[in-house]
Amino acid sequence: MFEQVRQLQLNQNEFLDTTLHSLKKGWILHFVLGSSLQASKVRVFTNHPTTASKRFKRNEFYELAWESHAKSKCDASDNYCEVLIAEAGSYQYYFTLQDGLKIIGSGYFVVEPTLHLTSESDLLPLDCITIQTVLSKCLGPFSEWEDRLSVTRNTSYNMIHFTPIQKLGASNSSYSINNQNKLNPTITAGSDVTFNSIGELVEKMQTEWGVLSVMDVVWNHTSFDSQWLKEHPECGYNPINSPHLRPAFILDRHLNQFSRDVMEGRWESKGVPPVIDADHHIQAIQHVLQEHMLPDLKLWQFYQVDVSKIVEEFYAHVKDIPYTKDDDVIDANEVVIIQDPKFKRYGCTIDMDIAGKVFHNNRSDLEGGEDIMVENKSKLKSHLEKLNKHAETEVKEDLRLAVNSVMSHVYYHYVNPSGPRVGKVTTKNPLVPKYFLYDDFDDNFNEELLDSDEASCFHAHHGWIMGDSSGRDFASPESKAYLRRDVIVWGDSVKLRYGQKPSDCPYLWNHMLKYTEMNAKIFHGFRIDNCHSTPVHVAEYLLDAARSIQPDLYVIAELFTQSEEMDNIYVNRLGINSLIREALNAYNSHEQGRLVYRYGGNPVGSFLQPPVRPLTSSVAHALLMDVTHDNPSPIEKRSVYDMLPSAGLVAMASCASGSSRGYDELVPHHIHVVKEKRLYPRWNEDCCSSAEVNLSTGIIAAKKALNNLHQTLGYAGFNQVYVDQVDESIVAVTRHCPNNHQSVILVARTSFQPPSNPGYTGYVPPLCIPGVVDEIVLEAKMVQKKGSSGFKKNNNFVNGLSEYRVEMQEHIPLFSSNMVELTDGGEMNSPVQEVDFIDFPPGSVIAFRISLNPVARMAVQSLRSCVAQFGYRVRTLSGNSPRSNCDFMSIAEKLTLGDMNQVLYHCENEEKDDGKGGGLYHIPGYGNTVYCGIQGFMSILSDIHKKNDLGHPLCKNLRDGDWMAGYTANRLKWHPSTRELGKWFENAFEPLKHIPRYLIPSYFDAILAGAHSALLNLCWKKMTPFVAQGSSFVKALALGSVQMCCIVKTAPLPKLSPALADVPTIVEEDSGKQKQNVVSMAAGLPHFSSGFMRSWGRDTFIAFRGLLLLTGRFDEAKYIILAFAGTVRHGLIPNLLGGGQHARYNCRDAVWWWLQCIQDYCSMAPDGRELLTCKVSRMYPKDCDEAQPAGFVDQDLSEVIQECLQRHAHGISFRERHAGTGLDVNMTDKGFDVCAGIDPQTGFPFGGSEWNCGTWMDKVGESDWAGNRGHPATPRNGSAIEIVGLCKSAVKWLKELSSQGHYPFNYVQIMIDGKLSSMTYAEWDKKIQQNFENKFWISVDADREVDKMINQSGIYKDTVGATQFWADYQLRPNYPIAMVVAPELFTPANAWTAIQMAEKSLLGPLGMKTLDKSDWAYNGIYDNGYDGPDKNTARGFNYHLGPEWIWPTGYFLRAKLHFSKLVLPPSGQAEVISTVQQTLIQHHQALEASPWRGLAELTNEDGAYCKDSCPTQAWSMSCILEVLYDLDQMIKTRENIE
Predict the structure, then answer these.
(1) What DSSP letter does each residue of 704-754 carry, written as one string?
(2) How many C-beta atoms surround the C-beta of residue 1012 within 10 A?
(3) Helix, coil or strand: residue 1536
(4) pLDDT at 1051 exceeding the cut of 70
(5) Catalytic annotation present for 630
(6) Could you give the CA distance from residue 407 to residue 190 in angstroms, rounded to a whole number?
(7) Count of other CB atoms within 10 angstroms of residue 1207
(8) Cα–Cα distance measured from residue 1309 to residue 1311, given in angstroms and rounded to the nearest whole number
(9) What is the mean pLDDT of the chain?
C-alpha cells in the first residue's frame, strides 16, 4: 500500500496564516526547504504531537528532525522533516534559523476528523454529509423528540444540527441562552430528563439510525436575564469595567428617552408625531437630534482637558525645573491629549515632561522670570484649547455618523416600502433600539449613577456590524461602534467580556468551559454561532477543551467575512471542518451552478495524482445548504417550483450538503428562531393530519432520493465535477468517478421566478451523454394539485404548502422515462448517446447514471494496467488491482544513455539531422515544445499538472486528436535502438483512441509522466553513486550529460583506431554498413547542436569532467579524448571539430583543457592510466598531410601528448588552411595567422595576436555599420592566466607520471638563449611556480602612481604580455580557473584576497561578469541582434565584456572552497560552505524553472534574461555539478574529522 505523503515547502519570510492546508489522519506531512532556505540551518517546530502518548497543547511545540533520501551532503534539496498525522484538529508550525531568535515563517495545517456512524467501520466522509437543521424548541417535550426527529431520519439525512437545547431567555430566541448549563424547560416538561437523556438519544441515533448530531455553541453572548450575569457583572461590558462606553451609554439613554418622548407626542410640534410613516418625519427627527438633543449632551467633554487645571498643574510641575535649552525644544504637536481611563468629563490630561520641552523655555526678548512664565502659560493654554477643539470636532463627527445610523434604522423600520413599516412608536417598537441593558429612567437621569454599583449591570447588548472587520471586538476601547451606533443590536442578549486570558474573567471562562465540555460529551460536532465575532482566542481555548473529550469533533461555522483570506484565518486557528455556504444567495441559476462547482470536487478528467506530491492550498471545505435557518423560505424569494431543482443542484455538490427543517415540507415562510412557538410535525407513514408528515408531504420523497444520491456519490468517489449552463434556467451537473469512470448527470430546470406556464416544457436542448445510460436514478417534477385551496397556517404545528406534490420515479431504465427519450442512432457502442426532453417543465430534475461503453471499458482496463507499473494507485473498473504491464522496464533497461538522449531530449536540429525526424511538436495556441523527446512535453505537463489546468492548449490538443501520442511513438520507431520502446508507446497509447476525449489528457499524462520518471531513474542508475544516491539538484545537473551527448550524423567523432576493442558500432539499415556509434557532445542547445557548430574542443573539455567523469561515463569519455587526439595538428586540438576533416585550429586553450581532462580521466576512471597506452589513429600524421583513414598511423596517446608539449616548446606558427572569407567571413587577413609557444624564462605558454582570439573569450566583431568587423573584442594574447594554470597542472602531472614510470618522456627541447636545450618537466614546473606570483599578482598596496594601468588591486592579472597592454590589468573571472587546476601556484593569503575581490566585483546571481563593472569597456547587456553605430555593442561585440557567464561561477566557487581550507578556521570554512550553498540556490531555481531543464550559457547584467544565450549549455551544467561534488567531499571530510 502506498502512503499518502504531502510536501509543504518552507520559504523564508513566508507566513501562511491565511493559506489553508488540509490533511487527513494517517497521511504523512513532509516539510521541505524552498530554495531560499536550502543553504541555511533551519529549525522546524509544530504543536502536532510527535508521539501517540503526547496530548495536544496549543502552546507546546516540538522540534522536528531533518532527514534525507539522498546520501550526498552538498545541498539540502532533498531534506525533509516528517509529521505522522494522527489527530484531527488545527495545528501550527513555524521555523527559525539555527539561532532560533526570530521566526522566519509559519502557517497552519488542518486535519479533518474521522466520523463514524453505526460502527467503527461505518465511516462518514465529509463529502457524504447530509445535514438538517432543527430548532430544538420546536421539537417539543423530550418524550416526543424521536417522532419528530424521525422526519430527518426517514428523509435520509445522516446528521442533525440542533439549535441550543439549554434554557432560553425571556425572548425565547434559540440563540439567547439564559443558563448554559441547564436544559430548556420546554424539553424537560416537568420530567426527569437530563443532559444524559439527551446523550442517550444521540447515541441511539448514531448506532441505530446512522445519524450524527451537531450542537450549536453560543460563546459570545448570553440572555440579558441570565442570573449568573447578575451575580457576576464583570462578565459583560458595562460603564464600570469599560468606562470608555460611558459616552455611548449616555447617548443611548437620551435616545431611549427621545423615543419615549416621541411615543408620548412631546415632539409633535417639531414635526415628529408618534406615528412615523413619511420621509418628512425622518427629516424632522434628524433635525431634532442634531439641533436640540445632541448638542446639549456635550459628549466631547469626555475627551477633553480642563484647561485651567492643566495649566496650573503644569506651572507647579515646572516651576523648580531649569528652562529647556533651545536645542532641546520640541514641536508643540508632540503635546497631545492623554485619554482619561475613567472617562470623566474634562478628565483627560497631557504628559507634563513633554509639555515642559515645548512650553518651558527662556525667551530672550522677555525680561524677568515671571514674564516668561506668563508667556509660556499663555501658549500652553492656547495649545490646550486647540486640542480641545480638535477633540470636539472628532466627537461631533462621531455623532454625525451616529445620527446617520439612527436615521437608517428608523427609515427601514418605519418608512421603507421593503421594511416592516411599524407605524406607531411604542414601548415594544421603540424608535431606536437600546444599546445597553437598563430600566427606563425618568427625565432627570443623573450621570453620577454611572459610578454606582448599579452601573455594573448596565451591560452592552451584543449584535453585529454590517461590513465590519471580522474578529474585531467592537466593544473594546479601540472601537467607537457603540458611540457611532454602528451595531445592529440584539436586545435580548448581552455581549460577553472575556479579556485575553482566563485570569481576566475567571468565572466566565470557567462557566463557558463547563458548558462546552458538557456539549462535547454528548454531541459529535459543534456549530459555532456568530463565529466571525467570537473572540478567536476564546474559541481556540474552548475547542481545545472540547477536542480533548471528543477528538474527532466535527466543527462547522458560518462566516460573513466577505474574504477568503479572513475565512482561512478562522478555519486555520479553530480547525473548522466545513464552512456553511448557502445556495439561496445565488441570484440566478448560473450563479447557483457556479457555487456547486466552486465548493467541491476537481474538474472532470483531472490528472491522476501520485501518492507523494506537494501540499497545495485549498478552498475551505463547504457545507452547501439550500437554505439556512436564519433566512426566509425560498418560496418567498423565488418560487415553489424552484425548491426541487435547487435541492437537486445542492445534492450534486461534491461537499457536505444540508437543509433546514421546513424546506422539504414546503413551508412558505421563515421559521423564525425568535418568534416561532409552534412544533414540528411528527413522522407517520399513514399521516392524516397537519401534525404529521410522510413521504407524500412536500418534496420529502424527492429529497430522500437526492440525499441518498449525494451520499452514494461521496462514498463511491464521484469527486470530479462539471457544471454546464444549458440555458438561462437549466443547469446540468456531472459528478464523475475517476475510479470506475462512471458519471451521474443531473439536469435541473430552476424557477427563480414563478413560471407563467408551470406545466410547459418548450424547447430544451438535447443532452449529449458521453457513454451509455445505465439507468435514470431519479426523475421528478413539481405539480400543483387540482382544486387546491391555498395555504393555511396551522396555529400549533409548522405546516407547509399542501397543494403541491412531486411526481417521481427512481432507478428506472431509460425507456421507462416520462421526461426524456433516446434519439435515433444512440447505439450501445456509440461514444455518445443523445436524449431529448419531452416533458421537463420548470421545477423538474432528472439524474442519469452513465457508464463507459464496452469498448471504452476495455481501453481503460488496458490503460490502467499500463500506468499501474509506474506506481499510480488505480483499480480496474470492477475495483480490483490491475495486472501490471511490466514490459516497459525490460525494454527501457536496454537503452544506453545515448539512446536516452533520443528518447528524452533531442532538440530540433538534432532531430532533423538524420533526415528521419520531423522537428518539434507544435501545440496550437501555445507554440513548439523545446525538445522532440518526452522532456519537451513533460516541461509543459509538469506545470499543467500542478494547477490541474485542463484548459491548457496542450490538453485541448490531446482532446482534439491523437497526434501527440502518435508523434511520441513514431519518432522512436524510426531508430533501431529505440524502436522497441516506440512500439511500446504505440501500444500504450492505442487505447486512448477508444475512451471519451475528456479522459485523454489524464491518461496520456500518467503514461508519459510514469515513463519519464522511470527513464530518469534508469539514467541515474547508470551513473556513479555520487549521482545515483545524490540530491535532486545533483541528479538534475547530471542529466546535462544525457542532454548534450548523442549521435548526430552531421557532427560525428573521427573514426577511432581499429586497434581499440569494444568501440560501439551500429549497422545502418539503409546501407547495411557497420558504422562507429560514439556520442559527441553539444556545446549548447539549440544553437550548438548539429553540423560544424556542435563539437567545440574547448567546450567539450571544459564540460568533460562534470558531464562524463562525475557521471561515470568513462567509455564515452575515453573515446572522445582519443578522437580529438587523432585530430592533433600543429600541436593543437581543433577549436571546431568538424568531424576532423573540417577542423579549425584557431584556439590556444583547447589543447590544455584536453590535457587536463586526460589527467582527470587517469585519476578518476577505473584503471584510468591505461588510457595513456591506448592507440590513437592520427588523421594528420604530419601537419601538411591530408586526412588519413583510421589505422593508417597509430600512436600511443602518451606520444600524442608529448608531441603537443614539444610543439609548444618549439613554438607554433602557421596560417589556417583555406584562410579567407570562405572560412570566416568576419576575420581579417592577419587573424588567420596562429602562433603559440612557451616562454623559456618563465615557462608560461603564450600566443595569439591582437587580430585573433585564442581563448574562450573569442568574440570577433561582425558589424560594418559600427566598424568593428574583424576586430577581436578580447584578444587576450600573451600568457592568459587560465592557460598558464592548465599548463602548470599538466606539467606537474607529467613530472610525477614520468618519475613513477608511467609516462615515457621526462623533458621537452626548447631554445634557451639561442641554444636548443632540454627542459625537464620538473624544471618547467619549477619555472612556472617561481615566476607566477611575481608576474600576475597585483598587490593590495600596489602604487597606482607607479603603474597607472592598475584599476583594481588585490587581484591577479588576466594576462601577461598582451599587445593591448591595459588588458593585462583587467579584472575578469579567469584567475579562479587557475586556482582550481593549479592551486599550488597561489600564495593562499593573496588568493583569498583575490577571491573576495572577484566575489565583490564579478559574482552575479547566476554567472560571473566577464569584465569588472568599473572598467571603461564594461557593458553587461548582450544583444547579438543589435546592429548600430555603437562599436562596443554592435552585433554582440560585448559578448565577453560584461555579460555574466555561468560556467566560470563553478570555478570561482570551487576556488573559494579550496582556499577557505587553507586560510580559515573551521568556523570560517563552515560559513563559506553556507555561502556557496546559498549561491547555488539560484542555479537550482533556474534549472527547475527552465523548460530545457538546463542552465543557460549566460545572463545579462545582474542575472537578467538574455534572449541570445543558449538556454542550456554543457559547461554551465558541468561546472556547477563539479561545485556540488567538491562541496560533498569537503563536508564529508569535515564530518569525519569532527
Answers:
(1) HHHHHHHHHHHHTT--EEEEEE-SSSEEEEEEE-TTT--EEEEEEE--SS-
(2) 21
(3) helix
(4) yes
(5) yes
(6) 47
(7) 21
(8) 7
(9) 94
Minimal CA–CA distance to 463: which of 488, 496, 483, 437?
Answer: 488
What pLDDT, on the 0 to 100 scale, is given for residue 883?
59
865-870: long-range contacts, CB 8 A cutoff, minimum separation 24: 866/988, 866/1007, 867/608, 867/1003, 867/1006, 867/1007, 867/1010, 869/1010, 870/1006, 870/1007, 870/1009, 870/1010, 870/1011, 870/1013, 870/1014
Kindly give the interhelix angle for 1150-1164 and 1114-1126, rounded to the nearest 10 degrees.
Answer: 140
Angle at the Cα of 515 from the Cα atoms of 223 and 672, rounded to 5 degrees: 45
Cis peptide before 1086 (omega within 30 of 0): yes
Q: Is the distance from CB of 1505 to CB of 1431 less than 8 angstroms?
A: no
Positive or negative torsion for Cα 1407, 1410, 1414, 1419: negative
pLDDT band at 470 (very low <50, low <70, confident <90, very high): low
pTM for this one? 0.91
Query: Is the pLDDT assigned to residue 365 strictly greater than 60?
Result: no
Pairing of β 612-614 and β 5-10:
parallel
Separation between Cα atoms, residue 455 and residue 1157, nearest integer Å: 92
User: Which band of pLDDT confidence, cut at 50, 70 and 90, is reported for residue 444?
Assistant: low
Active site residue 529: yes
| pLDDT of 818 | 96
Q: What does the block give as the cell for 541?
A: 481555548
SS3 sequence of 959-1004: HHCCHHHHHHHHHHHCCHHHHHHHHHHHHHHHHHHHCCHHHHHHHH
CA distance 1204 to 1130: 8
pLDDT score of 827 more than 60: no
pLDDT of residue 1: 38
- Whether residue 1206 contacts residue 1131, with contact meaning beta carbons closer than 8 Å, is answered with yes
Q: Is 552 a catalytic residue?
A: no
CA angle at 524 for the pair 523 and 529, rounded to the nearest 5° = 75
Return d(Cα 210, Cα 203) in angstroms, integer: 10
Three cell numbers written together for 794: 396551522
Rounded Cα distance, 244 and 476, in Å: 8
pLDDT by residue (tens digit) across 75-108? Answer: 888 999 999 999 999 999 999 998 888 999 999 9
**Alpha carbon distance 1526, 1461 (integer Å):** 12
Average pLDDT over residues 951-976: 96
- Other CB atoms within a 10 A radius of the CB of residue 697 amount to 24
Q: Please state, for a pLDDT cut of 70, what percent of the chain lies above it.
A: 98
Query: Quick check: 329 pLDDT over 50?
Result: yes
Active-site entry in 261, 529, 664, 899? 529
Q: How far apart are CA 610 and CA 623, in angstroms?
A: 28
The answer to whether the CB of 1240 falls within 8 A of the CB of 1134 is: no
- Catalytically annotated residue among 147, 451, 544, 630: 630
Of the candidate ranges 557-561, 676-680, 1139-1143, the one whose mean pLDDT is the lowest: 557-561
The 10 Å Cβ neighbour count of residue 1228 is 16
The Cα–Cα gap between 1358 and 1275 comes to: 12
Percent of the chain scoring above 90 in pLDDT: 86
C-alpha cell at 876: 480496474
User: Which residue of the set 21, 360, 532, 945 is catalytic?
Assistant: 532
Average pLDDT over residues 791-805: 93
Which CA distances in Å does 1260 have to 1127, 1277, 1515? 25, 14, 21
Angle formed at CA 1130 by CA 1127 and CA 1135, multiple of 5 degrees:
55
Which of these, 955, 612, 917, 645, lies nearest to 780 by C-alpha position? Answer: 645
pLDDT at residue number 406: 95
3 state SS of 946: helix
DSSP label at 768? E
